[in-house]
Design brief:
Number of strands: 26
Radius of gyration: 20 Å
Helix content: under 10%
Order of helices and strands: HEEEEEEEEEEEEHEEEEEEEEEHEEEEHE
Largest sheet: 5 strands, antiparallel
Number of helices: 4
Shape: globular
């Protein structure tokens, strides 16, 4: 089955080299409510085949075709001050970016903003991939802090700023663009400008670090293992682990004796804690299980943060970023621009492996956005609020607070002034890093 999926992916890539988008385009103007609160309803127009605009053939240079914003009024968050960071002015001379600049993380430490990102020939695994770290006092002029490469793919950079110290985590993978092969997780500690401890492996082989964060002065790390099973379509389960640490290097289960909070199709997972200490999480369920494919919205009581109860969602929120603001939980993740917004579009009567192939084919050949949702832990559901400026290959977001209402939000995307490629076309073309400001009407 792995060979079938990989052959499918190669075929799509060959198609992508010679054609532009012929999928659906939202064609939505800023403030339009034509995209519904569940993220479905992408507009009535079909792509013209030019990849340049909506069904009407309009020019989609930046500002002419805006992004969906079904949330309207004074109670809705807003996005302002979009600017491109990588490639861009103010970068250190040591940073030599390749065409694809993507997976990123951002953190504040000792009065500076630290930005880490992956650069590579394309979205796909490559021995030429490299992680760069840079820092800035003003998020405009950057200082070089280091680079990490291993003659194999590197990705999933994650910072942990805690107790006056800064740690950096990342994963190594394989060398083939046609395979997803998790290797090891690495950790290194920042010593000073351009200086780090020697990276060392930690926790266990085959894990991917997804999100490191500090909540109520407690450090957490969400990891998953079994990522190779996602594209094998083997039905073998994945595990999501919720961890904590006393020293930033040695991690243990956040709840003693219960490392795995999810076993099944879930992989990328992020969470937030509500004011009462209970947990709300969103998982990506691309591998599929008895609940289907897509995502899950999960909750856990404050008395046992490892006791997750989940509800399936047929939409797939790739690269989930989950955070709390003003007593609410928000999600940034990838949005699928088909008629329903769903990832799970296969015939439910077919075997899991067949549905996996069908879902992958459809998803790869559909346009994408990076978007913001509100997450309701009581109903385990999401409400679509707005699209970030994004298109093509996009969505791996991170935020740092600016004040009580606003955040600096970093994300990657195919050029926002460029073609609205379907996802697989965007994955083998240039992508940039962007910064914008996300502001809520109420304080944190």
């Amino acid at each position: 089955m792995r060979r079938a999926i990989l052959a499918l992916g190669v075929s799509l890539l060959l198609l992508a080299t010679g054609c532009k988008s012929n999928g659906s385009w939202s064609g939505l103007k800023e403030g339009s409510a034509d995209a519904t609160a569940d993220g479905s309803g992408v507009g009535s127009g079909q792509g013209s085949g030019s990849g340049e605009g909506s069904g009407s053939g309009e020019d989609c240079s930046f500002g002419a075709c805006s992004w969906a914003r079904p949330c309207e009024g004074s109670g809705c968050p807003t996005l302002t001050d979009l600017r491109q960071v990588v490639p861009g002015p103010g970068l250190p001379a040591e940073i030599v970016d390749q065409p694809a600049n993507n997976n990123l993380d951002v953190a504040r430490f000792n009065g500076r903003t630290y930005l880490a990102f992956r650069t590579a020939p394309s979205h796909f695994a490559s021995p030429e991939a490299m992680l760069y770290v840079m820092s800035s006092e003003d998020e405009t002029n950057w200082r070089f802090e280091g680079s990490f490469s291993y003659d194999r793919d590197v990705r999933e950079p994650r910072f942990l700023s805690w107790n006056g110290r800064l740690w950096f985590y990342f994963a190594t993978l394989g060398t083939s663009a046609a395979d997803f092969v998790p290797g090891d997780m690495y950790v290194t500690e920042y010593l000073g400008p351009g200086s780090w401890t020697e990276p060392q492996t930690f926790y266990g082989a085959g894990f991917i670090p997804w999100r490191a964060r500090v909540i109520n002065d407690v450090p957490y790390l969400v990891t998953y293992k079994g990522g190779e099973n996602i594209y094998d379509a083997s039905g073998e389960p994945l595990e999501v682990h919720l961890l904590t640490t006393e020293d930033g290097v040695n991690w243990r289960p956040a709840v003693e004796g219960k490392p795995a909070v999810r076993v099944g199709g879930d992989s990328e997972t992020d969470f937030a804690l509500l004011p009462d200490g209970s947990l709300v999480a969103v998982t990506r369920n691309e591998a599929g299980d008895e609940t289907g494919f897509g995502s899950k919205v999960c909750t856990a009581p404050v008395a046992n943060l490892a006791d997750w109860s989940c509800s399936p969602d047929p939409k797939k929120y790739d690269s989930p970023l989950v955070f709390a603001h003003g007593g609410e939980v928000y999600l940034v993740g990838r949005r699928n621009l088909n008629e329903t917004g769903q990832y799970d579009t296969g015939d439910p009567s077919l075997p899991l492996a067949n549905r996996s192939v069908s879902n992958q084919w459809t998803y790869w050949n559909t346009q994408k956005r990076c978007s913001l949702w509100r997450v309701d832990g009581a109903t385990r559901s999401t409400t679509f609020l707005l699209d970030l400026p994004s298109r093509g290959d996009t969505c791996f977001a991170s935020v740092v607070p600016l004040d009580e209402r606003s955040y600096a939000l970093y994300n990657y995307s195919s050029p926002v002034e460029g073609n609205d490629w379907v996802w697989v076309q965007g994955q083998q073309r240039a992508t940039n890093l962007y910064r914008m400001e996300l502001t809520f009407p109420t304080a944190r």
